[in-house]
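queue> pop job 88
queue> type: inverse folding (structure -> sequence)
queue> payload:
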């Protein structure tokens, strides 16, 4: 009876798998703070993409992890056509074609030696406009590699418009932009920093949003849509379901939410302690995100959950 009258139904097609691919490794590298998640080799990433397709997952969001020696102040590995992320995009497209929406993280933090999402000025502050120039380059090399959707996650002012123009300039009008519209300076990102080998010291409060505010997110939403965003995202998901609901009610474009590393780690850790029922907690958390208005959910459990619930 509960199943028959359920108002919200989770489907594999709602899910997007975030995946990390690391340069220079011959075996997957486990991420200690995220049990079950690894930094993939190129070969294991291909296999993960195939598994996601077979499970009915809709998309995969790729994050590149370069060798430390290739990091520099400008994050040049992020715009190298042969950089790890661009290679991974080509690998996945070659393996699964259009059976999976291939998305890419468009940000410099994985590639800079200081770990910030942009280039720094002489006083050590993130230079918004100089960073936009780098984002335009990143968008173009990722599009040339074959990505379907770029996800600018750096929260620079004007990033969506600059990226849209850069893509259109090279004839990549069909590459969509998933705007990280409401990305908060959250305490829940900790495990992710291990996942991407971040060099960051300090925080990103000068460009990510304040957890206390929602009107700020709605202003960002209006700006992103005006600049040409095809889809919008709220990140993190669980602690910001009210923001997600506000955004979903306000727009007529697809809305995504990212169930981030800390959300994943909390459930896995509590389940390992025997304090909660793991599988039920995972499904409940994802159902809550969808109920709040997300049409697409980025979650590290994407393939597992899709396999469990089936295509229906």
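queue> result:
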């Amino acid at each position: 009876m509960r199943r028959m009258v359920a108002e919200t139904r989770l489907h594999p097609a709602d899910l997007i798998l975030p995946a990390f691919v690391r340069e220079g490794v011959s075996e997957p590298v486990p991420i200690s703070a995220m049990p079950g998640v690894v930094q993939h080799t190129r070969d294991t990433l291909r296999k993960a993409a195939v598994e996601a397709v077979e499970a009915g997952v809709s998309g995969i969001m790729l994050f590149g992890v370069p060798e430390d020696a290739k990091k520099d102040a400008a994050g040049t590995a992020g715009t190298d056509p042969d950089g790890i992320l661009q290679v991974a995009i080509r690998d996945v497209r070659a393996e699964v074609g259009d059976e999976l929406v291939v998305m890419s993280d468009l940000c410099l933090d994985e590639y800079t030696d200081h770990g910030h999402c942009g280039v720094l000025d002489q006083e050590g502050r993130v230079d918004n406009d100089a960073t936009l120039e780098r984002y335009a380059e990143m968008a173009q090399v990722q599009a040339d590699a074959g990505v379907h959707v770029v996800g600018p996650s750096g929260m620079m002012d004007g990033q969506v418009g600059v990226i849209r123009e850069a893509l259109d300039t090279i004839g990549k009008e069909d590459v969509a932009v998933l705007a990280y519209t409401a990305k908060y300076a959250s305490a829940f990102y900790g495990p992710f920093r291990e996942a991407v080998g971040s060099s960051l010291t300090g925080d990103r409060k000068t460009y990510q949003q304040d957890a206390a505010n929602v009107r700020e997110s709605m202003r960002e939403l209006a700006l992103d849509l005006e600049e040409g965003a095809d889809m919008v995202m709220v990140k993190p998901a669980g602690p910001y379901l009210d923001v997600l609901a506000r955004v979903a009610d306000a727009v007529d474009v697809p809305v995504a939410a990212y169930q981030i590393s800390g959300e994943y780690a909390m459930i896995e850790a509590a389940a390992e302690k025997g304090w909660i029922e793991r599988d039920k907690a995972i499904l409940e958390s994802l159902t809550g995100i969808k109920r709040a208005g997300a049409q697409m959910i980025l979650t590290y459990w994407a393939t597992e959950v899709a396999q469990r619930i089936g295509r229906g």
